[in-house]
Specification:
The structure holds two protein chains of two kinds.
Chain A lengths: L1 H29 E2 L11 E3 L5 E3 L7 E7 L4 H17 L4 E7 L4 H11 L5 E3 L2 H6 L8 E5 L5 E6 L4 H12 L5
Parallel strand pairs in A: 4-5, 5-6
Antiparallel strand pairs in A: 1-8, 2-3, 4-7, 7-8
Chain B lengths: L1 H21 L3 H7 L7 H25 L14 E2 L1 H7 L9 E4 L3 H6 L6 E2 L6 H11 L7 E5 L11 H10 L4 E5 L5 H4 L12
Parallel strand pairs in B: 1-5, 2-3, 2-4, 4-5
Helix pairs in contact in B: 1-3, 6-7
The chains are: A alpha/beta, B alpha/beta.
Chain lengths: ~180, ~200
């Protein structure tokens, strides 16, 4: 009995060490938080449906800016999760914007319709990428707080559990 | 996530059983004479603890290491790491590799490896045509490095067809730049040299 308890405790300890080491290395690769909290750019754009989109009108919202492409498999796989986040937290002030990179216009429209994307998608260009300090890989997601500042940047495949925690924390911050 | 737990449990169980089976035997006792100040029960627990911690660290290390070449369709010998390429770029003459970028223009225009040639996304027919045309003018035994970094390594739609095409064409020294996450994280953010523009 005693040895079983010791074994169980050691197993838990070992698992904790494994998780700690594994998570630390993943975190470094996936998420980088800007220490200076740069201001998010104010852009006036036209989305896929021809509607005007002014990011300045998102003041006091928490905004997820997702650079993605329909041709990028991990990006496309993430879209349903962004749709779910938008749906779940929209009433609390979350807004998602998708910037598609080098997608064929017809394929992008098909994708948009097929997945019933519930947030605006804008074909990206160099100006937009530069405004966010450069986007050199997909998917890349910026997390913008109610203060209009960039609170986080996720490079590569998104850890949605981590992203949702960030979103919830920012949604709890008071509006100005 | 489950398999490491099972492995650690199995290692722990094995150690526990081994310690119990040889408990009291002279050989084991003589080894433990190195730690005479520790009571026997505590010694076995300490030994078990150390073994388990080492096993867990080994597992974690294995999980966080570069993806195994066995599970990858681009062999490890045909991959080149960013720092290694940065060094190779300093070479002169035939030693200096021809570097071909096989990803989208949107990223190349923002930042690319100095001296690299834009081919375009080889996952699309136009890009593949451009790669074939460029390859036709290169010596088959010359060093060639292809890179993309548009997406995480496992999902890049361009590097695998580019690598397969060059191998098929008979290139003997073709390597692919390994970037786990993308060009930004694995090259630019590491302070390696970049050029901008088309």
């Amino acid at each position: 009995m005693r040895s079983s308890i010791i074994l169980l405790a050691l197993g838990a300890l070992a698992f904790g060490i494994y998780l700690g080491v594994h998570h630390a290395s993943r975190r470094h690769a996936d998420v980088m938080t800007s220490p200076a909290l740069a201001a998010a750019p104010e852009l006036s754009l036209t989305d896929l449906n021809g509607a005007a989109l002014h990011t300045a009108s998102y003041k006091d919202k928490v905004v997820l800016v997702n650079f993605w492409a329909a041709w990028c498999k991990p990006c496309a796989e993430e879209v349903p999760q962004f749709i779910a986040l938008q749906k779940k937290y929209q009433d609390q002030g979350l807004r998602v914007i998708g910037f598609s990179v080098e997608d064929d216009a017809a394929e992008l429209r098909d994708f948009y319709r097929k997945y019933q994307v519930n947030y605006p998608v804008v074909p990206s260009d160099l100006k937009i990428a530069d405004a966010f300090g450069g986007v050199l890989g997909l998917p890349t997601t910026f997390v913008i707080g109610r203060d209009g500042r960039i609170h986080g940047k996720h490079n590569g495949a998104t850890n949605f559990a981590s992203l949702e925690r960030e979103v919830v924390a920012l949604l709890r911050t008071p509006q100005s | 996530m489950l398999s490491p737990c099972l492995c650690v449990s199995v290692v722990g169980f094995f150690c526990s059983a081994t310690i119990r089976s040889i408990r009291g035997k002279l050989l084991f006792q003589s080894h433990l004479q190195f730690f005479p100040m520790i009571p026997f029960s505590l010694r076995s627990t300490t030994l078990l603890l150390l073994t388990t911690v080492v096993a867990a660290l080994a597992l974690a290390s294995a999980q966080t290491a570069k993806p195994s070449s066995a599970a990858d369709d681009i062999p490890a010998a045909s991959q080149i790491q960013p720092n290694e390429l940065a060094q190779a770029m300093k070479a002169t003459g035939a030693q200096k590799p021809v570097i071909l970028y096989v990803g989208p223009k949107a990223f190349y225009a923002q930042a690319h490896i100095p001296g690299s040639e834009f081919i375009g996304p080889v996952g699309k027919p136009e890009g593949m045509d451009k790669l074939r045309a460029r390859a036709a003018s290169l010596p088959k035994d010359g060093a060639v490095v292809i890179y993309c970094g548009c997406c995480p390594w496992d999902h890049c739609p361009n590097i695998r067809p580019a690598f397969a095409e060059l191998k098929k064409a008979g290139f003997t020294k073709v390597r692919v730049l390994y970037m786990a996450t993308g060009f930004g994280v694995d090259w630019k953010d590491k302070g390696l040299p970049v050029a901008t523009g088309e």
